[in-house]
Design a protein that fits this description.
Blueprint (H helix, E strand, L loop, with lengths): L1 H4 L5 H10 L6 H27 L4 E9 L13 E8 L8 E6 L5 H6 L5 E5 L11 E5 L1 H14 L5 H24 L4 H25 L7 H16 L13 H17 L5 H19 L4 H11 L8 H5 L17
Parallel strand pairs: 1-4, 4-5
Antiparallel strand pairs: 1-2, 2-3
């Protein structure tokens, strides 16, 4: 598990490594071990983590593609998706959950978050913005990226357009600079500073961007349209000092899966993709709570067979936040 989900070494490479060491251990055997371990011991912990995640009132979400070769009713080249949901920075315990689904349809986050009420940090995927009982805080990093792309793709000879692109980017940069200055403050003070420092900039930005006459198909026009489309959600981070200006927290958390995908490329069957989602959830949550993934997984697999995994209180003992000191990362590593 650690080699595949932490070190990004696919099972076929592990098979080769074992073979060179004189150990005839096939990738199919290892795959079966992962499936069995997940079903018996890891999935109950995953479900308990999900229940705790949905009790929070601030979450982040993101999604990325995954290819599953033998998916019923779909071609091998079709795109499936790995969704990510995680807690905000002020949560009492950090939780990172992955969920495999066959498509990017809005019904998937709606089903996952059906019992959730609160704020959701998200990017521009429209499916997040129709979820009942949820206030979306749109990502300013995505908005700023539109102006950065326009800056790179527009000719410097077009001085008027370049000037407007720079102005839009400067507004975004100013908002992020404020967040850097106040990041160490407690939430209440952070919110007060946002009202004092960021709100005037946002008002000026709003007046400028909604007056600007930019060609819709130009790079500037696309940046302006994005800002206008999500404006009411972009300013939602002013509602609570615990909220963040961007969804970068989710993007950082989904990156290990993206890195692993570059090496293993695809999943053979849906059950394998589901197992990967569960193990990635445990590994990334362990890392977020200062645990060494190998030590945590070894401890979990040692303790789980002693417990009745049908009893919630028993499973609770195995959550990363409840892991013993022996599972923690060694300082300096």
């Amino acid at each position: 598990m650690t080699q595949k989900y932490v070190m990004y070494s696919p099972l076929y490479r592990q098979e080769q490594e074992y073979s060179r060491a004189g150990v005839p251990l096939s990738r199919q055997t290892m795959s079966n071990w992962l499936l069995k371990a997940s079903a018996l011991w890891l999935q109950p912990v995953y479900e308990r983590m999900k229940a705790e995640l949905l009790k929070q009132d601030i979450l982040h979400a993101d999604e990325t593609t995954l290819q599953v070769l033998n998916e019923p009713g779909k071609k091998a080249q079709s795109k499936s998706y790995m969704w990510l949901y995680r807690t905000g920075r002020e949560a009492p315990q950090q939780l990172v959950l992955f969920e495999y689904r066959q498509s990017r349809r809005a019904e998937h986050p709606e089903e996952f978050l059906k019992d959730y009420r609160g704020y959701l940090h998200a990017d521009g995927y429209i499916g997040y913005y129709t979820l009942p009982g949820i206030t979306v805080a749109a990502c300013w990093a995505h908005a700023r990226r539109k102006y950065e792309e326009a800056l790179q793709g527009t000719s410097k000879k077009n001085e008027a357009e370049m000037s407007n692109i720079l102005r839009g980017k400067q507004y975004c940069d100013s908002l992020f600079a404020i967040e850097n200055e106040i990041s160490s403050l407690p939430p209440e003070e952070r919110l007060r500073k946002r009202k004092e420092l960021a709100e005037p900039i946002l008002k000026e930005f709003h007046d400028w961007v909604f007056r600007l006459n930019a060609a819709p198909k130009s790079l500037l026009g696309k940046a302006v349209q994005y800002t206008r489309k999500y404006w009411l959600h972009l300013v939602n981070y002013l509602q609570d000092g615990r909220l963040e200006i961007s969804n970068n927290r989710a993007e950082r958390s989904i990156k290990p899966f993206v890195m692993g995908r570059k090496n293993f490329l695809f999943a053979n069957v849906p059950k394998g993709a589901e197992t990967s989602a569960i193990i990635y959830s445990l590994v990334e949550t362990a890392k977020e709570n200062g645990l060494d993934p190998y030590r945590y997984l070894a401890w979990l697999m040692h303790e789980a067979p002693k417990l009745d995994m049908r009893i919630e209180e028993q499973v609770e003992k195995l959550l990363p936040v409840n892991a013993p000191e022996q599972c923690r990362m060694i300082k300096g590593v």
